[in-house]
TrEMBL record:
GO terms for molecular function: ATP binding; ATP hydrolysis activity. SUPFAM superfamilies: P-loop containing nucleoside triphosphate hydrolases. It holds the Pfam family oligo_HPY. Residues 13-261 form the ABC transporter domain. It comes from the Bacteria. PROSITE patterns: ABC_TRANSPORTER_1 (PS00211), ABC_TRANSPORTER_2 (PS50893). This is Peptide/nickel transport system ATP-binding protein. The keyword Cytoplasm does not apply. One of its GO terms (biological process) is peptide transport. NCBIfam families: oligo_HPY. Keywords: ATP-binding, Nucleotide-binding, Transport.
Length: 340
């Protein structure tokens, strides 16, 4: 099966100059993975591990201080290949919304509070392409109805809607042209558990109906468990494990993934949940070796010297850990100076 998105050795760093010193935050650090047609893939990891930066780069939103220092992101759209990193801005604009759409973090708050929802839809459409207003209004009505939103929301201001309703509107807006790929960053954040369920069900319904590909970021693995076919675990700018959702939950291989799963609450189980000890490393100053070695209770001597590569253990389960692969699986630390 051909991937719809193929990411190879992607390095996406923030570069700034503070008091004449170049500061490099290695937010996405040599990442390689494939995303397939008609699947929902989750990206999980602690706050600050690079999830949003990865999504922005996938969307081609690469504004300073963010810079891509290497690698490629290839979209395969009807057997035409596009490297989003190299596309001109107008070509990216053509792809966005129609082909690939983004539900950004805190998307409910992107709804302009002084514009009625209907106007927000029109503003959004106009910024994208020349559309006949009547035709577009019919598209909006159909979308709102298919997402079970009452048409009266069109005449409301965002503050008149509940948090869940606002998020539904934001999703309706982002998916109005039924894009082939939907990228959602923390779509359930700031919602109560009932609303979280509602949004997850909505995304599942859109996926079922439109057979699109979804990439869903959340720091909460229980959200992924409910909707994703596969999960990628991200740690300190790197993908450290990829697998089918049931494999990740039943047979996690990376010690960090194990901590993530063990820290999830289980109804009726009063055992103290165990989170990973210590704090995630600063992406400004990564030490040598595996980025998790300082927090890893079972680190080997090699782990402080070399950084393991992602190695496929089975056809659909990969892990970057020396406990599951030999010395041949390391890659040298990426020295940002090489790229500046
Ligand atoms: N504009 C910026 N300039 C410099 N560093 C940045 C910038 N934006 C983000 N970073 C840093 O890049 C790293 C990755 O951030 P990112 O927001 O991608 O992580 P995340 O996993 O999405 O976190 P969260 O779950 O909190 O949103 C962090 O160390 C963050 O501080």
């Amino acid at each position: 099966m051909n991937p719809i998105i193929s990411v190879k050795n992607l390095k996406s760093f923030y570069i700034s100059n503070i008091l004449d010193v170049t500061v490099v935050v290695k937010a996405v650090n040599n990442v390689t993975f494939d995303i397939f047609d008609d699947e929902i893939v989750g990206i999980a990891g602690e706050s600050g591990c690079g999830k949003t930066t990865l999504l922005n780069t996938l969307m081609g939103i690469i504004d300073p201080p963010l810079k891509v220092f290497g690698g490629e992101i290839k979209y395969n759209l009807n057997n035409k290949y596009y490297d989003i990193v190299k596309l001109e801005e107008d070509e990216k604009t053509k792809l966005r919304w129609n082909v690939v759409s983004y539900i950004p973090q805190g998307s409910m708050s992107i709804l302009n509070p002084i514009r009625k929802i209907k106007k927000i839809f029109f503003d959004f459409a106009k910024s994208h392409e020349d559309l006949d207003e009547n035709k577009f209004e019919r598209i909006v009505d159909e979308r709102l109805e298919s997402l079970k939103l009452p048409l009266r929301v069109k005449n409301s201001y965002s503050h008149q809607l509940s948090g869940g309703m606002r998020q539904r509107v934001a999703i309706a807006l982002a998916t109005i042209f039924k894009p082939k790929i939907v990228i959602a960053d923390e779509p359930t954040t700031a919602l109560d558990v009932v609303m979280q369920r509602d949004i997850i069900d909505l995304l599942s319904e859109i996926h079922e109906e439109e057979k699109n590909t979804m990439i869903l970021v959340s720091h909460d693995l229980s959200i992924h468990a409910n909707i994703c076919a596969r999960i990628m675990i991200m740690y300190a700018g790197q993908i450290v494990e990829i697998g089918k959702t049931e494999t990740i939950f039943e047979n996690p291989l990376h010690p960090y993934t194990k901590f993530l799963i063990n820290s999830l609450p289980i109804i009726g189980d009063k055992k103290v949940r165990e989170a990973a000890p210590g704090k995630p490393p600063s992406l400004l100053n990564l030490s040598e070796g595996c980025p998790f070695h300082e927090r890893c209770p079972i680190a080997l001597p090699i782990c402080s010297r070399k950084n393991p590569r992602l190695k496929w253990k089975t056809e659909d389960h990969a892990v970057a850990c020396f406990l599951h692969g030999g010395e041949d699986t390391y890659h040298e630390q990426i020295n940002a100076k090489t790229y500046i």
